[in-house]
Amino acid sequence: MRLPALRRTAPPPIIGGSATAAPEPKPPLPLPLCFLLSHLEDEAVVRLDGTKVGVSEVQGLELDEPKLGAFAGFLNALDFPVQLLVRQHPPDLGRMREALREDEPESLPERTKAAADSLHGLLEGLERREGILDRRFYAVSELEHAEELQSLLVRAGLSVHPLKGRVLRRLLLAAALGGTPAERDEAAGVEVEVNRRDLRLGDHLVRALHLGRWPRSLAPGFLQGLMTAGVPMDLSLHLGAIPAEQAARTLEWQKVRFESAQSLSMSRGRTLSSEAEIALEDVTRLRDEVQRGRERLFHASLSVTLHAPDEATLDDLTQRASAHFAATLGKLDGLAFRQREGLLSTLPLALNAVAAWRTLDTSSIARLYPFSPPDLDTRSGTLAGIDLRACAPVVYDPFDGTHLNANTAVLARSGSGKSFSTKLGVLRGITRGIVAYVIDPEGEYASMARAAGGRVLSPGVAGQGLNPFIIERRDAEELLQRIGSLRRLIEVMVGESLGAERRAALDHVLAAYYGEPREGAGFGAFYRFLQESDEDLAKLLRPFATGSLRHLLSDEGDDLLASEALVTVFDLHLLEPELRPAATMVCTETVWAAAARDPRPRLLVVDEVWSIMQHPEGAAFMVSMAKRARKHRLGLQFITQDVQDLLSEDSSRTITGHSGRALLQNAAFKLLLQQDAAAISTVGDAFDLPPDLQRWLLSCQRGDGLLLARGNRFPIRIEATPEEHALVEFSPGQQR
Ligand SMILES: Nc1ncnc2c1ncn2[C@@H]1O[C@H](COP(=O)(O)OP(=O)(O)OP(=O)(O)O)[C@@H](O)[C@H]1O
Ligand SMILES: [Mg+2]
């Protein structure tokens, strides 16, 4: 693979030489030479000296004690040089915006179209918003060690993806020229100017810095503070392990030096300074640890390149980065006349061109853990919010197959924005063609659904009944599970626990009924069958057949698939509250039947799920739905404000905590918005939240919360555009 022909204006300084001393301008060198690049192969960057370099992208993880330990283990196993690279730059959401446009259904109603357009505006704004950065992590080594490096990182609990072909090329160009990896017009050329204290690359400025004096002590998460300061930069940590024998010899020699200084002082009648005493202790301890193989010594070097559009901004960023190190008595070196070397050190070349090293032990380097904070950017889907800590857009697609399932649990106190954020998610889903169903006990989704061109059904009203009794698939497993669901539905409809005997009888009737092909038949047919086989049970169900509840279930049923709308709301607010659990199950079961017939990404929202979880059978039904949803590409989103009840382990409560917890275990995404003071300790325990996050959940503003996904915690802000806000806002006086 050839590198692009890029132009440069000033000759590159020879490494270690001076850029200003050139008596007359030399003809410009091709840019790849300036960056010490020979060419690119499919899996490797080849340096001018012929060294092949492999690059892997590393998925960020939240930093905690176990991860620090695992990272220290990784360091102790390293016996070749590596470069750990963090790149953070304004996000390029262009490809996502294109994908959203491609997926946008034609003929969206006017207000929905306006909301979709406004989201594009918000995304464009995010690309330019100060402090919003896309952060990615890489591990770089000579190609011959690449596989070993990957397996060591995997053993430390990190996910690693080796880069190849176009992706590798894009990264290299982005690292050399600034910005996030994106398609570039390579023919356009870029002018490079090397100055004393910065470089000009095309239309922006770069300043390379090097950590000349290391902080006295490194706290865990030291680098995260720098990364979240909102500074666009590339940060590179070069590490070279010192062989254990050599390390032990060096330490022994140092120890001897300290000891002889000590005996010299004592022979002159002076005591050793406390600093020297501590140093002697440290060296002795470290030598012992190194000899036992618990610690190792490394050559370490840390370089940073800052990117800015103009000099004033560059100076400001330099100041912010320097202040971060100064707070711990570290000092960033400005690399005067050595800007090119600085930049080279942060390219994925496994090359520390600055060639200044500091010796550090494993524990100190482990505290530099660079792969945090993580982001959830799976490079597809749509915007969920802004990560408040990483200052990055949170973008993901629950249906992209990379998650355990597409289910989301939303838990928060009343009025914290549960319904708002769900409606926003539904709206953003429908603007990219994801069909949504909403079970809405309060009737607060109807106005949004109507405005978005969806339909609103009111089960229980004549002509709007549903028919969950169709089982079309002759798949034995599906049949068995549907029979189980219908049995639970009937138990909740009956409103009382049936007892073992009755339950067995009901199961028997259902099995006998569906033993024959019953395509298209509905509740009416089943009821007649039941009258013949178990009259007592039939009596209990009579209100649904001929009584006041006869409109909830209909024989024909509304065929959800026949004219599937982008959003369908089951408005249950007209039903008596005690009927809502049964109605919720009827709706869920009907959506399930549709999903089984035609699996594709669909979202099913169950608001106020607590009402159904109160019934043991309802709880079992919901848990089994959540477990199976993935099979038919259904994403369940359940919402509740009764967090304590849902999570309670007290079996004397109406619902045992086990069902609530099982429901949560089957949700790959959990959104915790503002919490009640009374519930926070339960929530904290259930989700293993540190005290600072618990406090934050008590005081955060409406629309802020914690998204738990992929084993990480993302503090996010859910932000809607004015057009979206107008569509999803519901005020109680509004027409439903
Ligand atoms: N992310 C947000 N941005 C702006 N406004 C918001 C946001 N989230 C919530 N709100 C405002 O807060 C109000 C209450 O939110 P919402 O009705 O969603 O709360 P809830 O948690 O569903 O309450 P309940 O428990 O009563 O159902 C909304 O009407 C909206 O005006
Ligand atoms: Mg609500």
Kindly describe this structure.
There is one protein chain. With 736 residues, the chain is of the alpha+beta class. It has three domains: 35-88 and 134-182 and 196-246 and 293-366, 3-Layer(aba) Sandwich (Vanillyl-alcohol Oxidase, Chain A, domain 3); 92-125 and 404-466 and 559-729, P-loop containing nucleotide triphosphate hydrolases (Rossmann fold, 3-Layer(aba) Sandwich), CATH 3.40.50; 474-557. The chain has 27 helices and 24 strands. Strands 1, 2, 3, 4, 5, 6, 7, 8, 9, 10, 11, 12 and 13 form a 13-stranded antiparallel sheet that branches. A hairpin with a 4-residue loop joins strand 1 and strand 2 (45-47). Helix 22 (616-628) runs parallel beside helix 24 and helix 25 packs across helix 26 (691-699). It is elongated and about 105 Å long. It starts with 30 loop residues before the first helix and ends in an 8-residue tail after the last helix. Mean pLDDT is 86; it is low at 1-23. The structure holds adenosine-5'-triphosphate (ATP) and magnesium ion (MG). The site of adenosine-5'-triphosphate has 15 residues, from helix 13.
